Amino acid sequence: MHLTGKKRMKSHSPEELQEIFARIDAIDWSQYHTAYGNASGIETNPKKWWERFLPMSVTMHRHRYFDEDCRDQADIAKWLKMLFAGQEMVAREAALKLDNALCHQHIMIADAALPAYDILLYCLKTTDSALLTEDLLDILRGLAAGTSKIQSGAAWAVSLRKKLMQDKSIFASYFSMEEEEETFIAAFAKEICTLLQTPPIMTQG
Which of 45, 70, 146, 166 registers the highest number of CB atoms within 10 A of its CB? Predict the structure, then answer.
């Protein structure tokens, strides 16, 4: 596995990008939610979106967001596409937005993480940027932590946990990263696998 610190990353072909974007656009993001509201970037049900959160060690407060910046942060399709922009800085900004929206500060996880997961993993497997790899593994670390406790009835969280479990060998492939710029890559990958070793705790409401 060869990762670089170059600002310009390996580019996907037009055909690959078309396929990736089609996969992203085929998802009805209005059916999912993020830390900032509806995952389509449009707040359609402000009284209920917070109920879709899966709490970890703290209880989410009943925040509601309506301002333009929060709607932009919640536009998951936009940020997933930006991961494939070919410019490291742009892709890393998108990863940060996704981290905040899907598993905000790693103290919660939102149901939009389920449909976003396959795209995140595809980007992880195809990028040659060490820094973006680190960012993506950090998001996946948040998803692994977030599904360590699953609220009763959150079938989407159970499905997400299964996806993570199925891909443990992919995360394990990053254990051997030893270059100085790859320190966090190995650490994050190991933490993901450690988090997945223990069956999730099922909680009530």
Answer: 146
pTM over cut 0.70: yes
pLDDT, tens digit (0-9, with 9 covering 90-100), for 107-147: 889 999 999 999 999 999 999 999 999 999 999 999 999 99
Long-range contacts formed by 25-28: CB under 8 A, 24+ apart: 25/77, 27/77, 27/115
Cβ neighbours of 11 (radius 10 Å) = 12
Q: b/e for 93-102, b at 16 or more Cβ within 10 A? A: bbbebbbbbb
Which residues, in sequence order, are bridge partners of residue 87?
A: 8
pLDDT 10s digits, 185-195 = 999 999 999 99
- Give the type of residue at 132: L
The answer to whether 73 and 97 have CB atoms below 8 angstroms apart is yes
Count other Cβ atoms within 10 Å, centred on residue 188.
24
Q: How far apart are CA 124 and CA 181, in angstroms?
A: 16
CB 14 within 8 A of CB 20: no
Report whether 4 contacts 176 (CB < 8 A): no
**Amino acid at site 197:** Q
